[in-house]
UniProtKB/TrEMBL annotation:
In the N-terminal section; belongs to the acetate CoA ligase alpha subunit family. Keywords: ATP-binding, Ligase, Nucleotide-binding. GO terms for molecular function: acetate-CoA ligase (ADP-forming) activity; acyltransferase activity, transferring groups other than amino-acyl groups; ATP binding; metal ion binding. PANTHER family: 3-HYDROXYPROPIONATE--COA LIGASE [ADP-FORMING] (PTHR43334:SF1), ACETATE--COA LIGASE [ADP-FORMING] (PTHR43334). This is Succinyl-CoA synthetase subunit alpha. PROSITE patterns: ATP_GRASP, GNAT. It comes from Stieleria neptunia. Transmembrane segments: none annotated. CDD domains: NAT_SF. The lineage of its organism: Bacteria, Pseudomonadati, Planctomycetota, Planctomycetia, Pirellulales.
Amino acid sequence: MVRKMQAAATLKTCEQLAMPIRNLDMIFAPRSVAVIGASERRSSAGRIIVDNLVAGGFVGPVYRVNPKYTSVGGMPCYRSIADLPEAVDLAVICSPAETVPRYVGECGRAGIRGLVILTSGFREAAPGGKVLKEAVLQSAAPFEGLRIVGPNSLGIMAPHLSLNASFVSDIPPKGNIAFISQSAALCTAVLDWALQENVGFSHFVSVGNMMDVGIADLIDYFAIDRWTRSIILYVGSITEPRKFMSAARAFTRTKPIIAYKAGRFTGSAKAAATHTGTMAGVDSVYEAAMKRAGVFRVYSVEQLFDCAKLLSQQKTPSGPRLAIITNAGGPGVMATDELLGQQGSLATLSDDTIEKLNQQLPPVWSHGNPVDVLRDATPERFQSSVELVLADRGVDGVLVVLSPYATTNPTGTAAAVVQAAKHASKPVLAAWMGGGRVREGTELLNAAGIPTYSSPEKGVRAFMNLVAYGRNRETLYETPREVPIEFPLYRAKQRSLVTTFLSEGHDVLTETTSKAFLQAHDIPVIPTHVACSLAYATECAARVGYPVALKVFSPDITHKTHVGGVELNLANRNDVALAYDRILKRAEELCPEARIDGVTVQRMLVEPNSRELIVGAKRDPVFGTVLMVGAGGTTTELLRDLALELPPLNERLARRMVQSLKSWPLLEGEPGRPGINLNRLVEVLMRLSYLVADYPEITELDVNPLLVTSHDVIALDARIVVDHDTVLHPVRPYSHLAIRPYPDEYTKRIILKDSTAILLRPIKPEDEPMWHSLLACCSPESLHMRYRYMFKASTHEMATRFCYIDYDREIAIVAEAEEDGQRKLLGVCHLVADADHHEAEFAILVGDPWQGVGLGSVLMDYCLEICADWGIRSVVAEMAPRNARMIRMFTNRGFVMDRSQSDDVVIARKRLSPLILM
């Protein structure tokens, strides 16, 4: 019994980690507010804020601060912050810009840790803006934990606390949507709309210039807010991409974020040096980043709130199969047309469902989907139809469409649909068509959480939004299979091989050097020879064998085809001679300033079922390196059939990229024509991902074309662009990526005291099957010790919480061993840091068969080393009071035990001395 009790100290998953996001409670849940710059002038910002706080019903004291007044609005006004009678949580600053740095310092000295700065004039483009911004930051620096929203903010609202610290007079209803906006103008428009439509909010934030509190901080804070069930995000640009990706990925595990990105068609002013750089525009990278973070993107402001309510209230469908129930044939056809146009699927009802509907409906009903319950349908007929269709396994969701005939009871039917959907595990949506007659029914449906639309088409589009959201979340947490090829990475050796390539002195590496770079990373390339004369070109052609391809060789010509610098399928010596002259002549005419060093010669690969792709990478100014795969060859930019993804890639993400291409059906093959070797292509994409992750010196990379056949993948041409400043002045590893790659630096081998060879390494999504097996070999008591609740079996949803992790915020070290030729996980130690990397929660699970051999101690000590390496200040763990063995392990390592919180939990805590900040 004691042995099994070693199994676990308890850990919350990352999204459950309920530590406050460094003093943001002082801003969004203050007990008292001071308005700095309060005024008697009713049109002034200071008076508007005071009036809004009072009129909004804020229950705490509202202090006025302004040396010009003794009273404001009939209440005392204090000359300075130091004169306030008590400590204040939140200060709202609306004084002139030049006074703001002084007031920030005074707030810090007074112990105020929450600031909202409404004053404008701090943008770097504004006169003196940069100086003012630096002055504010210097004033705030001495005060740990001082948080600032703004400057240039419209303000904040927290309707559940009746807090209106903004320029907008009317506070919206209480709700469960948090609104975060970079546009103050949009904030006012959205508030007007929300008041008109009676849409409620949990919080409303105008972020302003984001001097301190950014979008990622707010997402983290609202993730643990009890009122917030979804976030609406209006974003013009992301300034801290890595923090944004981490925060968004944590939030969207359980709750939706809906984003509208402004400035979709803003292009880069700098011409790209490669095809990848040309094609991967700013907006397409935002699209890829949001999809990777699980954020649902909309393309109009009107969609924002519909999607926010829909995704937060409705269950995610398991597929696109929609059943339509209607009392009119025409609207049913309209819904069907829209569904098929949106690539949805009209659900096929089972024979059993059809038979049951036959028993409930008049003989002349439609006998299929759409289910036409006829114009005289009663509420009871609607209800029974909805219940029967929802029970059909072939149905993923139901849209109920009502047309208000003279015999129709819209309100009664709405009540019946609410009753039918009460315990449904599938989404139910409604389209109540008409005006005044259907209004009461519409309100009844909306109040019950059934989204209601004015037309069938809108209802179908809403359902397809649910489908798209569900597909993206499912793909993000789909269990990847292990790549069936050994995937060794010899990074130190590879770095030594390519150091000379990077120091060539050219921004654009030559084709041969670029190919050598790829080859050093086990990406197959076709042998290429450089010929500086016609005689050597013909000699090389004879050596490699006809037919051959010739391409211009110049450090100054980026796109060879643009200058006629490529000649293909040259069958003999005479063809080579003519092509050599044509290439040099055209290059000299079209690029007279370019240095022409000759041509490259390579054998033409003749493969009957081959396809040409382009793969590449570019350095995005916001999200860092981004990867691309698309239709390649000479029509690359014409077709623009491409997919983007942020590195690092695993097998699942690489496969998804390829299968998302419009040309995937051609790549997949068909009867009589084999498809491409997808596994080999996936491996090449993953190797490319490792390459660009390991080399921040690379700003752009093209492999075009990449020839893909039924048995192999080979690079026919390549071009790499490097940043020589990074070559000369190395940067922090992975700082050029928005997502932290797999931390294989935390991999090491040890021998246990029973001589078992163990591999300690971070967990990865591919480990899910072994993770399930580990849990299966644990006793119910061991599992209860670890997870603090009883469950019959582990599920994929559980695994996504513990195997699919953000290595910037958490890490799980597994102990892997081989038994009887099979790899197994013997135990796992999990660390989850708070958003500020100050504190980490710790938990450990050792499988029952491997307890008592020192594995728990090994895992614990190794994770504590990692905590110090991360810069974690303190570690905390929870465990049951009867878990004597675990308590002893913590006590022996200097943890302080706290039994005061509850009779059924012991909290262990230890302060650490950080070694290295990551």
